[in-house]
Structure formats: C-alpha cells, structure tokens
Amino acid sequence: MGLSSRLIVAAGLGVVGAGLLSAPIQGQQDAAVRKTSAGASQFKAGTAPVIGTIDIDSVFKNYEKVKYANEEFQAAMLAKRNELMKLQNEMGQEMEVLQRYAPGQEEYKKQENKLTELKARLEAGKEQAEREFQSREAEAMASLYNEVTEVAKRIAVARRMTYIVKVTNQAPNGSNPQSVMAAMANPMIYFDPANDITQDVIHNLNRVYKDAGGPIAKGTAAAGAAPAAGAAAAPLGTPPTGAVPAAAGATPKTSVR
Description:
By secondary structure, the protein is mainly alpha-helical. 59% of the residues lie in helices and 3% in strands. The protein has a two-stranded parallel ribbon with strand order 1-2. It starts with a helix and ends in a 46-residue tail after the last helix.
C-alpha cells in the first residue's frame, strides 16, 4: 500500500523546515567560531603541565592529628557501646524477673511493659549512636581532608606543579586482596618519585600540628591508623627533600615549610 501524496508532501515540508531551522543555528555557530578565532590573540598560552603525585592514604596514616582523632573516636564509640551494654544487661535481668510470673498476672503485664520500654530505649540508643558517629566521622574526615589538600596545594605551587594526582604507594600483595584491588584501581602505572609530595605533606602537617600544641595519640598508632610498610612519616623538625618555607602570615593550618 503506497503512501498518500499528502503524507509525502508533509514529510517533505518537515525536512525543509528542519533545514531552515538548522541553517541560522549553524550560521551562528560559525560566526561565534570566527569571532573567537579573531580574538584568539587575547588569550594567554597555557602552561606546560608538571604533574606531581600524592598518596592520600599514606598521609592520613601518618598524620598525627588523624591518629589522635581516631583514638578519640574509638574511645567515644567504646563508651557508647558500654552504655548500651548496660541497658542490654538490664533487659536481661528484667527478663529473669518476668519469668517468675505466669502470663496473665498483673505483675507479668507490668514487667512486660517495662521490658518493652527498655527495648525501645535500646533500639533508639543504637540508631542515635549510629547517626551521631556517622555524622561525626564525616565532619572530621571533611576537615582533615581539607587540611591535607590545602597543604598539598601550597607545596604544589612552591614546586611549580600544575597538577597533583592521587596515587597509592602500596605494592600489591597476594595475601591481601584489598591491596591488589587498590593497585589495579590506581590510574598511574608509573610516576617519578622525585615529583611525589607525600612525605612533604606529611612533614608539614605534623610540623604545624606539633607547633600548635596538638595532642598526640597515647599509643604508637591509633586503632586503624598504623603506618603502612614503607610509608613512615618524615621525622618532625627535619624538613624532607622538597620542603618549602612557610608563607608569610600563613595560619598554622595552612602554612608550609
């Protein structure tokens, strides 16, 4: 069955209309390109890329402020856990009391209501603690990450680097699947160690933190923040290779030396 002439005409007009609509747009684009090209001399030439690298994981593991924050965080979690455990133990004791009565007795109903109330308090306490610690962890991580990136930026500027790329210095280990996955996810197959600013960032963060009188973790390393093999922090007071002087008037949080 053939198409009607009216439909063919309508389709043809549609194609023509589309051409009429696209023509001005194309013309505007060409004009914009020509205008941009004409003023190309106004733009400055881009700088040659100088790429530096940083192992964020190593920085966090060796930053004394992170170690102390982790220790405080773990202590707060333990205290909250003990608080909830007391409530749970109280429930166990009340359960033993409940068993002394027979269902239907007035004492049984009172004890059952008490257990229901304790259970509600325990569940509410768990949910509140989870929200509280998630929020606390997120806020702490955001603040610490901002400190790390600020120091990294200052070092990059001082060393005239135009890009800083996150990498991992942890070698893959067959006995540790996570290290293998981290290595495979690393976008950098090779990078020049001379352009790695990890130790510079660690040194400057710890120097500023020490100068500000920041508290140090009681243990040699806080839980979950033990230094990785081959990623020891630079000794405090001994500037590592590539360290730069502090900016004049810089605050303790962002100064670099």
